């Protein structure tokens, strides 16, 4: 299994709007080959920080999704006026080792 963890920090206190957008997202990733599940997290100590954990059968499935038009389509639901802390966006890949 491959896990992608993406994170970013919201610069303009739109955390509640961003979280609501995730709750109401169009669920397009669920149609991607190799997709297992998505979790969206926000740490208590920084409610303007968002972490996305996507689980995939393999890294190739993630890469196909990440480069697809559907990946770009899901970002159309981003609240207008959202600003991110420069340099805060990270996308990292992980090998699932054990549970």
TrEMBL record:
Which stretches make up the ABM domain? 2-91
Q: Looking at the keywords, is Oxidoreductase present? A: yes
Gene3D superfamilies, A to Z: 3.30.70.100
Q: Which UniProt keywords apply?
A: Monooxygenase, Oxidoreductase
* Keyword Oxidoreductase in annotation: yes
Q: Name one GO molecular function term.
A: monooxygenase activity
Pfam families listed in its UniProt record: ABM (PF03992)
| Protein name as annotated | Antibiotic biosynthesis monooxygenase family protein
Species name for this entry? Pontibacter silvestris
């Amino acid at each position: 299994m491959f896990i992608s963890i993406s994170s970013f920090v919201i610069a303009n206190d739109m955390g509640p709007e961003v979280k609501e957008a995730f709750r109401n997202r169009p669920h397009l990733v669920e149609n991607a080959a190799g997709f297992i599940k998505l979790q969206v997290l926000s740490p208590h100590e920084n409610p303007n920080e968002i972490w996305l954990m996507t689980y995939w059968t393999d890294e190739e499935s993630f890469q196909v999704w990440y480069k697809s038009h559907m990946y770009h389509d899901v970002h159309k639901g981003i609240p207008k006026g959202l600003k991110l802390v420069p340099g805060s966006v990270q996308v990292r890949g992980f090998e699932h080792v054990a549970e």
